[in-house]
Structures are given as structure tokens and as C-alpha cells.
Amino acid sequence: DDCKKSSMDEGTAGSEAMATEEMSNLVNYIQPVKFESFEISKKRNRSFEMSSFVETKGLEQLTKSPVEFVEYNKMQLSRIYPKGTRVDSSNYMPQLFWNAGCQMVALNFQTVDLAMQINMGMYEYNGKSGYRLKPEFMRRPDKHFDPFTEGIVDGIVANTLSVKIISGQFLSDKKVGTYVEVDMFGLPVDTRRKAFKTKTSQGNAVNPVWEEEPIVFKKVVLPSLACLRIAVYEEGGKFIGHRILPVQAIRPGYHYICLRNERNQPLTLPAVFVYIEVKDYVPDTYADVIEALSNPIRYVNLMEQRAKQLAALTLEDEEEVKKEADPGETPSEAPSEARTTPAENGVNHTTSLAPKPPSQALHSQPAPGSVKAPAKTEDLIQSVLTEVEAQTIDELKQQKSFVKLQKKHYKEMKDLVKRHHRKTTDLIKEHTTKYNEIQNDYLRRRAALEKTAKKDSKKKSDPSSPDHGSSTIEQDLAALDAEMTQKLIDLKDKQQQQLLNLRQEQYYSEKYQKREHIKLLIQKLTDVAEECQNNQLKKLKEICEKEKKELKKKMDKKRQEKITEAKSKDKSQMEEEKTEMIRSYIQEVVQYIKRLEEAQSKRQEKLVEKHKEIRQQILDEKLPLEILGFMSNESIS
């Protein structure tokens, strides 16, 4: 009874404790630690430690240090969890952190939104075990990966995916319109939200037919982390079903894709009929080569056709050479006398072994067209090759930014001259005022002395008054004149000294200003030169591509002309001539392209060398003197 009572009190706690103990024996524990930095984690190098990041912190680390985050996840585990402000239990997009190699990307499972659907679609594969192995290059220590890359990853073959939505089956039992949306999720460069949307079917949800142009994902950089989502909606936007497929698991061909509901549970009848093409990504520059490799029979037939067309032109050129060499010979006699057979490189040899006179020996020389072939090649290349001249220093000085800086410096120098001119004017006014004050004081005092002298002259008329006053007044006037002269001399010396100091200050200010302006102009001219030269090199690449296209266009036109000429002959002869024509044509094409590329390379080397010379000229001593002279002239004007 006591045993029963204790078991009733415990309930299932006893069995749960035993189960927990058994489960814990199977678990490898991970030690949680606070994340400090990627450098410290790399230095510690402890694979049993794990750090947790709130989604905002994880996104910050992913944005600032994407490569370091990937390297960190190679060494130890990381866990991402939703931020606490998601009161509606919404989810962030887990693809962001899968791209960085995060092992545990936690979501709010109570909300089945798009992020949760992608999570369930991703882990549906690998037997629904809940585990997916990261791509190899995200596990190997000798490989480095940037989740924000836009180019091809070393060792990974990018894919080209084409999806054509053909029709749907049993999408809804209602009489509503339906449409399909196609999304791609993966790296930022691969992600395309709502990349494609079909037209809405009119009131047909049982077997709608769209039959529209396929949506092409030209370059999927990382197929192992990308997934394709095909979703079906009613015309009002109500969700019907969807399917999330990893790009790596998609196979080409026609497929019925059964749809799933929001919780990734299979729907009984709804399905979408699609046609999918999966190829390795090939850049546009190599598309012709890949097409030839994928369909070699068609390529060989095309080449044979071109060779036969070219052979006809070679034979016609030989006949024209014979007619020019024997103008008096009748057309009927010429073939019987000297019959030629085509040989390599267009050189013709006669079939007769008998000795020939000099006039006949001339006929057996190589055809003029074959001798001048290199010259013709060069002429054709020169006709498409554009002359690119480096911008001179005078042209660089005409750039808007440099002219703007020159105007600014001219204005600053002009303002400096105005300030010193204003100071000089003020100083002259000041000295004029002092001169007037001294002059007025002198006149006032002299007038007073003269007045005193008049009074003294009246007293002189009185015989009883003494006669010594006149000599005193004359002495005072002389002293006053001497004092006045000394004051004026002192004022003039002071004025000259102040003007000299002011002129020296102006001279040194202008000299320093010009020196600073020269430095700024040289730096600006150097920056302008680098910018213009970089733009010119970029433009040169575009010019090279245009020249190749123009060369191909001219060669294709030439080929069409030869084909037209070959068609005018009888069928048996035309086939033989076309076979020979295509052989020489292929060699000609390769030589033309090779020589064009060599000419373009030489042109670029010359341009780069010229750019270096111009930059060196900017740094030479002559250029600062020229700029200084220019500015002096501007300041004088």
C-alpha cells in the first residue's frame, strides 16, 4: 500500500527521471559561453563551446564580418534566436544565417509564416531527420567563403535553372481564378522574391492552363544553399498550396509537383505541372563553345558547310589570276594548257612537269591573293581597330573639377590682394589724417606767434618799451618750423616703414598662398588624371568587345558572300568547294581573332605606358612652374 501511495504521489515523475537519465547518457554536452569576438574565439579554438546570438546581434556580425562569421561556424556551434520584441511570434528569415553556416537557427514554431515554411521545406529532405550537412567548402579550413559574393565560388559549379509553369490540377473546388508565383531563396545574389507570376486563370481552378514563357534564373551561384518555392494562390490572394524544393535536388524534365499546405503537409489532389531545365552556368562569352560541345554533330555539319562555301571562293580567285596572266588566251584553251589543282594555303601548282618558258613559269607562281593574305588580314583588323589616344595634360586641365579648383584659387588670391589693398588704403588715410593734424597744429601755433609778434610791434612804437621781444619771437618761429619739419620727417619714415611691412606681409602671404595652391592643383590634377585614365581603360574594354563583334560581323558578311557565290555552281562541284572552304575559313577566323587580340593588347600597353608618362609629367618640376605662371597671370589680370 505504501508503495502504491508513493507511486501515486510521484505520478510519472519516477519514469520520467529514469528516461531523462537514459537520454542524458546519449548527449554530448556543449558549454555555453558569451561571445566576445571572432579573434578571441579563434585563439581559444574550443569546439565544445557554443555562443547564442539574438537575431539583431547575429545580423550585425554577419553584416560587419561575413567571412569571419563563416570561419567561426567552421570551428564551433552558434545559435540564433528571435528577438524579444517579436510580440506577435513572427519569424526572421533563417536563410540569412544558413548562408553563414550557423548550425542552430531557432524560430517561433507557433507561427507558420514564410520563414517557418522555408525552414520546414529545407529540413524535409535528408529523410526528415532534422539534420542537413553544410556544403563542403563551408566546412573545409582551407576554403574561405563570403556570403555576399556575387561571383562564382571557387570549386562550385553554378547552375542555370529554367522553370515553365504549364498547368495545374485540382487546385480548388471553387470556381475561382488562380495564379502561380515562383521565388528563389539562397545567397543574396541568388535570392529573387516574386521573380515570376503567371496570369490569373479565369474561373478555372480544376485544370487551369497557363503555358507562359519560362522564368530563367541565369546564374545560381550556390545551388546547395538555394531553394525554389512554387506557390499557388486564388485571385484574391488566398493561399492554396506551395512546394519548396532545394535546387540541388531538382532534376530536369516534366514534373507533377504535389503541393503542401502551410505546415508542409501534403495535399491530396492539388498539383502543378511544370517543365524544368537544369544546366551548368555558362558565361555568354563561352556559349558558342558549349553549344558546339553539347551538339557536336550539328556543329561539325555547320563547319563543313562553311568550309565548302569558302572553297568556292578560293577556286574562283585562282581562275581570275589565270585570266589576268594570259589576256590573249581564249577561255577554251586556258584550262587545257595549264590546269591547276588547289593546294594548302591557296597556293596552286601546275600538273605539267615539262620545262616552261618564263612566260609560262609566271603562271605557276602562287596566286597574288595568297601572297597578300597577311596584309589583307592587317587591313581588316585595322579597319575595326579604333585609335585610342591618352588625354594630354592640357585636356586634363579642362576637366570640370580642375577648372573649378582653379577658379576657387583665383578667387582666394583675388580676395587676398583686395584685403592687402584695403589695409594699404587705410594706412595711407591714417597717415594723411596725422599729417593734417600736424599741419593744423603748426598753423595754429604759428598764427599765435604771429599775433604775438604784431602786439610786440605796436609796443615797439612806444619809446619807453624795451626792444628785446622781436628777437624772441623770431627764435620761437624758427623752433616751430624746425619742430614741424622733424615731425613730418618722423611721420614719413614711420609711414614708409609701415608700408614696407605691409608690402612684405602681402608678398609672403601671396607666396605661401601660391605654394599651397600649387600643391592642391598638382594633387587635384593627379586625381583627375587617375580618374580619367581609369575611365578610359574601362571604356577601352567596352571598345574591345565592340571591335570583336564588328570583326565577327564583317567575317560573317564575308562568309555569306562566299556562300552566295558557291550556290551559283553545280551541286557536285559546290559540295567539294564548300568542304575546302570551311577548312580555310576556320583557320582564318582563328587567325583574325588572335591578331585582333594581340593588337588590342599592344594598344592597351601603349595606353598604360602613356598614362604613366603623363602622371610623371605632372610630378615634374616644369608643371608646377607652368601652373605658377598661369596663376600669376590670372592674379595680374
UniProtKB/TrEMBL annotation:
GO biological process: G protein-coupled receptor signaling pathway; lipid catabolic process; memory; phosphatidylinositol metabolic process; phosphatidylinositol-mediated signaling; release of sequestered calcium ion into cytosol
EC number: 3.1.4.11
Region (Disordered): 317-374, 451-472, 555-578
Reactions catalysed, as given in the entry: a 1,2-diacyl-sn-glycero-3-phospho-(1D-myo-inositol-4,5-bisphosphate) + H2O = 1D-myo-inositol 1,4,5-trisphosphate + a 1,2-diacyl-sn-glycerol + H(+); a 1,2-diacyl-sn-glycero-3-phospho-(1D-myo-inositol) + H2O = 1D-myo-inositol 1-phosphate + a 1,2-diacyl-sn-glycerol + H(+)
GO molecular function per UniProt: calcium ion binding; calmodulin binding; phosphatidylinositol phospholipase C activity; phosphatidylinositol-4,5-bisphosphate phospholipase C activity
SUPFAM superfamilies documented for this protein: C-terminal domain of PLC-beta, C2 domain (Calcium/lipid-binding domain, CaLB), PLC-like phosphodiesterases
UniProt protein name: Phosphoinositide phospholipase C
Gene from which the chain derives: PLCB1
